[in-house]
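Task: encode each sequence below as structure tokens.

Item 1
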Amino acid sequence: MNVLLAYPNYQHRDKSPPLGLMYIASVLEQQGHVVNIIDFSVDKQVNFSASIRKSDFFGISFTSQQFYEANKLINHVRRVSEKIKIIAGGPHCTIYAKEVFDALPEIDYLATGEGEYTALDLVNGVHPLKVKGLIWKEDGGKINVNPSRPIIKNLDDIPFPARHLVSLTKYSCSGVILTSRGCPYKCIYCLKKAGRTWRAHSTDYVISEMNEMREDFNIHDFHICDDNFLANPARANEIADAILARDWDCTINLWGGSRVDLIAKNEALIAKLAKAGLRKTGLGLESVIPKVLNSAKKGITLEEVEKTITILRKYNVSFFVFLMVGLPNDNYENVKITKRWIVKNKIKEFGVSLATPYPNTELWEYVNNYGRWLVSSKDIQKDFSYHTVTKVYPMWDTPDFPAKQRMKALVELIRFSTIRTGYISRDKVTIAIKQPRLMLEWLKKWLKLSI
């Protein structure tokens, strides 16, 4: 079969290849199918219609923020071909499941959870009724929901992502690699799209994939995008040992972030990873207010945060702090406390976002029970514009932290991140050059203190 896979444009994401589609492609190719990938974030000069006409299946993966772009692509596919089978997947489809068919009536199949073997079954001709993890539409329009597909327990069974199907030179972060899936922790805002069961590739698999990236694609900067790379410190230690044994000249970026409690408890591991090439990590603090951290079920303390900062600086590992505005028990007065903490700890790189609820999370239920929705629940799936970079506005609030105060807190902290000790990051300069219209939008908000 000929399969066309597509990733919708999302100009504000880091430019990295679509690993999820590349895993699906590798599984399909292993079974003899012909696969092409189009990433509309970087592939600007493609004959999309011609590719559609050559294909038997069209697969698309998207997040909620990409909904409208995905909708446009799906409608175009159906206009070009009435016969092609359309499969939708990705985080948005896992979140909304059957409801996606109401919003995207042109799709035939919807894959929830991990999509590699759901896609393979369909392309291999297995009857939809027998495909686990599938929601599908009969010719008469009836929607069927099949049993869920079990998580992939042995990740080493999956071939390496099909990097040869994308133009890696078009990406600023071409070296993305996923060494584990899932996260066992219970943060209330997080939808575990890969499940709570943490599973990992073996050290041999990870090192073999890294070696292929080096030898076949000239990649020496590895961006590990696991939800929780350090979940098993012993495995992380083995990977560091293997890299050091090969004397690779490489850099490692824990792109997906790291839990501060695991760093605080494993200084020797961080020292070894730094020797192996670790240069940067993200720290998902979300708040520096203990009451808010407890409400969000982060399972970390400020003492652990500050110990982590000390350890990372000791071994010259830079870090980016992620913060949220509007988690339960947050309020506008916390902005001053947050600023003081940032100054005290000499934090240079940090980002701020609004706490955004998704279905099937504790935060969603919290809003239902204690908050107020500012958008219609029927429109939530179709319009996540409040969560894009240029059209940010809360979708919910509470009496003690109303929407206007949330926006004021958000913009104050964004302004503070810009002018903090005159710090201008390389990333900000890059955005200013490549996306001047985006920077103009943020400049307007920065000046007005409102959005």
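Item 2
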Amino acid sequence: MSQPAAFNRPYRANEIHFRFVTCIMPMPKLTPHISRRTIIQGIGALGATAFHAPFVHAAEEPAAANIQFTLDRPIDAIAAPFVLAASRGLYRAENLNVALQVATGSKDTITRVAAGTTDIAVADFNALIRYRADPDSLPIRAAFVLLNRAPYAVVARKSRGVISLGSLEGRLLGVAEGDLAIRLWPALARRNGINASAVKLEKISPAVREPMLSAGQVDAVTGFSYLSAVNLRDRGIPADDLAVFRFAEFGCPAYGLAVIVNPKFAAARPDAVRRFVRAVTEGVRLTIRQPDKAIDEVMTQMDGGARDLELARLKIAIGDNIVTDDVKRNGLGGIDPARFDASLEAIAEDFTLRKRPGAADVFDTAFLPDVGDRTISL
């Protein structure tokens, strides 16, 4: 039994290696007269698993590639597609050795990609837009959008008098340091006829966001819907006392988390990027089809955490942020140029765009699989 090279070398600082045992089976030598159907059946006969990798290539095996990949936060439910890509052999099927690192947010992952200390990373798409709006920025682009709708939300207590988005006027809104949702709050407020200046903002530490709302020290908080709302229920706040105002439901056009690529790596190893995106795309599809089993895999990689909470988190993200109407029509991973332009307008209400990036400046369609390989069946 052997392990990919990325799992055999010594640990690096801030690097996590997936704890998976893989079995490499000898494959029979294929001859030209064997049909594709026979090949696929033969591979299936090697052993069934709860998940399977559909990317069977009868052509010559691609060159092996080592990839440094960085998440924006420690592994949790939202990392399920990447966990499955490793545990279910999707990276291995693409001849990729992927070493995982963990950063401290989108600003950190963008910085690492720009510095070349990681090849591929996860970052908030809107944070990437702000970065690319600097004329001196490197040409970093996204290759795949994981969350088709941003998870930005205001989470409030009804018992504190917040029963609608408009009722935030005169209330105290807790905003954690580094929070991404608040950056699009001015555009959302204007769009919905809310006097943003009448909403009192209190800067708080991310560590006390849910505790302060739970204790009634603030009336509402900004954050991600699948994080704060689930965390608050875990703190004993009744579900019927929580009001979750998802920005997307109030007209916010923003995309969410995306896979971004170092430009030098993309130029030097475009096929490796393409294969990585293929593996992740299938990881997303597997996650959508069987979230319970996906969470089982995630729990093996988490330090602590409760399965029921992570499963709830994942199901919220799938329903609200991944499987959207756009994705049902157009498949996973891509963006719509008109919607991109609308998101730029929203960003510009809170941020000066020194250079207005176009969709092609921020997103590279060259690495997406064919539409047929990105569609989902529910």
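Check on item 2: The chain has 16 helices and eleven strands. The chain has two domains: 5-148+255-373, 152-250.
End of task.
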